[in-house]
Amino acid sequence: MTQTSLPAHASVVVIGGGIMGCSTLYHLAQMGVGDAILIERNKLTSGTTWHSAAQVRALRHSQNLTRMIQYSVDLYSRLETETGQNVGWIQKGSLSVATSEGRLTHIRRQEALAHAYGVTAQSISADEAKARWPLMNADDVIGAVWSPDDGRVSPSDVCAGLVKGAKRLGATIFEDTGVTGILTENGRVRGVETTQGTVTCDAIALCAGLWSREIGAMAGAEVPALACEHFYLLTKPIDGIAGNMPTLSDHDSHLYIRDDSGGLLVGCFEPMGKPIAPGVLDESFEFGLLPEDWDHFEPMMLNALHRLPALETAEVKMLLNGPESFTPDGMFMLGETAETKGLFLGCGLNSVGIASGGGAGMNLAHCIVHGRTAYDLGEADAKRFAPVFNSLEHLMARAPEILGTHYEIAYPGRQLATARNLRALPLEKEYRAAGAYFGQFYGWERPLYFGKTTEPEMTFGTPDWSDNVAAEVKAAHESAAIFDASPFGKIEVEGPDAEAFLQHVCASNMAKAPGSAIYTAVLNERGTYESDITAHRITDTHYRLFTGTNAIRRDLAWFQRHTNGFDVTLTDSTEDYAVLGLMGPDAARIVTETGAECLTELGYFKVGPAHIAGCHVRAVRMSYVGEAGWEITMKAENAAPVYRALTKAGAPPAGLFAQTSMRIEKGFAAFGHELDTDTSPVEAGLDMLVAKTKRFVGSEALAQRRETAKRRLVTVVLADETAVPLGHEPIYAGERIVGHTTSASFGYRIGKPVALASVGMDDADHAEVEVDIAGVRFAARLQYACAFDPAGHRMKG
């Protein structure tokens, strides 16, 4: 469809003509949005897409991200048949080599994961790797993994195919059309102002790559992404390159290598990249490149010369330096923004745009049309970042490190070094004095364990902090310990319709008397989890909701968008309050000694006021770790005196690693691990907590699911005490993969490694299975009961 002038209205305006914009437009048209338009400031594929190395590697760290890449592969392979456009698909596989024991474990874990996710991969020897890549120096290679189904495409041809397909279905492209403003009204988008006129619209898909942060700001939305320089070397033809070869990944050397027009393409993700300040890439930057920087590339060049001796005599064609955009955690942003309804993000692709683009564009279009992605992509949720991460100072520090982590070994417990200390807990001073080792979550610095004396060595074996965590678990189990839950999101729900509103949006019965605590699923219209929360009913008209640390923007936006017809006010009170969990058999003695004896009269899941160290607190009798105690909420400024009183009475602090171990032993599901938007309470084994006599969001869909869905969440107890499961390991029943672990730790109270898992077995309870950890299978037992104190006697006192 050809059109020379902008329409007055379009259902959806896609901003950006790279791979994400073209894919999103194509899929919008496929889903029936025939009047969707794409506007591009310059020409299609300008910016980043045109210079992409365009590798398509299927395996990612989660099942749905892998599924998304597999969709890209299927899409690119069928585009030629559908449109007649050759996309340049070359399927020669990929070869990942290891030159260190850590890397070998890393790629063997990836191989095991590939088997669980339906991706072909196999371990091969260094000699076999050398046979597949004869130009490679394999003297220091100790192993490799071969993935035959991976490949690469021509990025410009893929976009051309997507555009052809979209145009056939009525969509329209407008090049040389820059965005000058975004019109909003009452917090939602209404139109796009461009250099060619104004278009009103119902939704915007922001796929502007390098410029997405600035365009998002036009609509009042935060889009924390920043461009970095990205380098690859191109040589003229050399001997030994005949036809196409597999992509060679030498990630210990920070390199990826493939053939290119008879020569070599040698790319890198160096340990610390070079950020590009906003404004450097202006509207004139179209099919542009940045200056060569041989000094910066030199360490990578030396690595490449070691791996490929033939480079010594190769003629260099150019050192390409093209910009790529990166986010604070290395994952793209997909979905509707928290700030502006109707503004959907598809940006921050972190240099995997071509591989992700087909599946990510489909999911973004699905999100726009159906209100959700086609399957759970919570790790890419556009609302997952704390506002502090949109700071230019923090992005300039973090984005270069994220570029470098692209090829880092995925050691458990590894922490980023840049953009730290952005948000301090009320007790940060006290925790530092206690030797806390911190991890960053939603900008908060949370203690992972205490008693740190040196920086921990990263390993896939028993971690350096195991003894520290064991001591913290022992304290909580035998006496008492303090767990800090202050970063959890907190939402005040107030007003005459507070009860009615929560009855509508929550799956449990929220009409309990003031002084009650309620754990509840929050479901969507499909009957699957949107969140899980704990609510404290403080008065008839006031509830306080506690949600996940990373979920506050997402959950607050979701609740706010369901308030129509209810007289309620929602307020984010996260930073106003601190929360300390006092847990263990000595907890009752400690609250009595500190002046809060009245708390001992509270029943389980009851909330009441008290005073500790002269400070007003509100405590709930409950436990996330399986030991008796209270979660105590107080004004943030009162945290220090309350903490001092509790520690003086005999309760030391415990970190997140201890809490996680104890949570897994108790079989408590966590959102983002066991619970997601593809999972209902039935599969999670939590349907007994859902009210059966009221209607709520998702109740009808959940009733239908009960007829067909089966429980999938189980506890896994490994027999070998030396096994170190981390999560995302495949589970075998014989030679059949029946599921995978979702969270894992050592269970210090049971003396065994323990995990939670999602399995598809009719006879899962008490089944004998094996867990594949980096290619080694460990005997294990499945059970529906939790591993520790299944009757719950200890936590109920």
Question: Can you tag this structure with a few keywords?
Answer:
25% helix, 797 residues, alpha+beta
Number of helices: 18
Overall geometry comes to globular
Radius of gyration: 27 Å
Range of strand content: 25-35%
Low-confidence stretches: none
Structural class: alpha+beta
End-to-end separation: 71 Å
Largest sheet: 9 strands, mixed
Helix content: 25-40%
Tally of DSSP β-strands = 38
pLDDT averaged over residues: 96
Task: Explain how this protein is built.
- Helix content is 25%, strand content 28%.
- Helix 1 packs parallel to helix 8 and helix 2 crosses helix 8.
- A hairpin with a 2-residue loop joins strand 29 and strand 30.
- By secondary structure, the chain is α+β, with helices and mostly antiparallel strands.
- The mean pLDDT is 96.
- Strands 4, 5, 6, 12, 13, 14, 15, 16 and 17 form a nine-stranded mixed β-sheet that branches. Strands 1, 2, 8, 9, 10, 11, 18 and 19 form an eight-stranded mixed β-sheet that branches.
- The chain has 18 helices and 38 strands.
